[in-house]
Amino acid sequence: MPGRFAGLREAYRRDGFVVVRGLLDVEEAVDLRRRLVEHSGVTDADFEDVEDGVPRKWTSPGGVAKTPEFQHLLFDERLIELAREVLGPKAVYLHHNDLHAGYSSPGWHRDNVHRTFSKGDDWSEEKAPYRCARIALYLQTHAESGFKFGLIPRSHQRESRLVQWERKAPRFSTVRRLVMGQGLAFARARWIATEPGDVVIFDHRVLHCGGRTRGPKYSIYLGAGVQNEHFDRHWSYYRDLRTDLNYPEVPEALQERLLNEGLWPSEEVPELDHVDHAFLPSVA
Ligand SMILES: O=C(O)CCC(=O)C(=O)O
Ligand SMILES: [Fe+2]
Predict the structure, then answer these.
(1) Cα distances (angstroms) measured from residue 127 to each of 54, 130, 132, 172, 229
(2) Cα–Cα dist 193/211, whole Å
(3) How far, in Å, from the CA of 262 to the mean position of ligand 2?
(4) Residue of the CA atom closest to atom 7 of ligand 1
(5) Whose CA is nearest to atom 6 of ligand 1?
(6) Which of 12, 160, 189, 204 sees the fewest Cβ atoms within 10 Å?
């Protein structure tokens, strides 16, 4: 019997992402938002002073794993079913998750290890397919925030020379910003006006961008993947190389529960102290 997500795999593999409207109930999203407010100390009033559409308030790397109020999401059958539909039935927990209260990432970027198109092992799928994704839950309405999440379909597989040039050319970018807002001149973005309960699952290599906001913005990002060389590289990148983010260890009790539920990777993820061409912020 086809499941509720049947058919999404094809779109995910083609575009690098899919959007599932109303996967969570609005009441659940409201409850998650309440927990996020409580946990972060950021409230709706803090968004009154948003300047230039870019709030940069609070983020907690690894926050879903380390905060008991959010751990249940890692066992949510709907999210697991979605991840397994698009990534494959062996998808498990990937230790890359965040809580965001007002945090935004407004420039076009990727979240994988090798962020320059086609440079580095993330872009080589001859030995193993890239089957790792982020699962984004946005918890505010479009009406109150003005927020849209932008993604460039197929940018996990291709990037034209014009886009490569556009993303590197700062002078051109200033002109472009005035003329086109946040869009790219040489690639057509999809802008998703997210509503509470909507879920976006995307390949880490897809170019994406947080739209400008003028109100409250709260989100939760989870990670999932099929264990292979890309999965291991991604996991150890956040754990071992992104010291700027200070990733927590997965709490032992959570690890145990993930293991019992078939959601823990079957092989230990090897430690890495260097990855050629890996993106590292200069402050790291
Ligand atoms: O909500 C946003 O601004 C996008 C967040 C994002 O892309 C990230 O955290 O990597
Ligand atoms: Fe991102």
Answers:
(1) 40, 10, 15, 38, 9
(2) 9
(3) 27
(4) 105
(5) 105
(6) 160
From the alpha carbon of 217, which atom of ligand 1 is closest? 1
- pTM score, whole prediction: 0.95
Q: Nearest C-alpha to atom 8 of ligand 1 is from which residue?
A: 105
What residues have a C-beta under 5 A from ligand 2, the ion? 105, 111
For 210-222, how does the pLDDT look when each residue is reduced to its tens digit (9 = 90+)? 999 989 999 999 9
CATH code of the domain containing 130:
2.60.120.620
Instruction: Write out the residue range of the structural domain in which residue 120 sits.
Output: 8-159+185-260
Please report whether residue 53 resides in a domain.
yes
The minimum-distance atom of ligand 1 relative to the CA of 134 is: 10
- What 3-state class would DSSP assign to 20? strand
Give the model confidence (pLDDT) of 255-265 as tens digits. 999 999 999 99
The span from the CA of 22 to the CA of 238, in Å, is 30
Residue 98 CA, closest ligand 1 atom number: 9
pLDDT tens, residue by residue, 33-69: 999 999 999 999 888 877 777 767 899 999 999 999 9
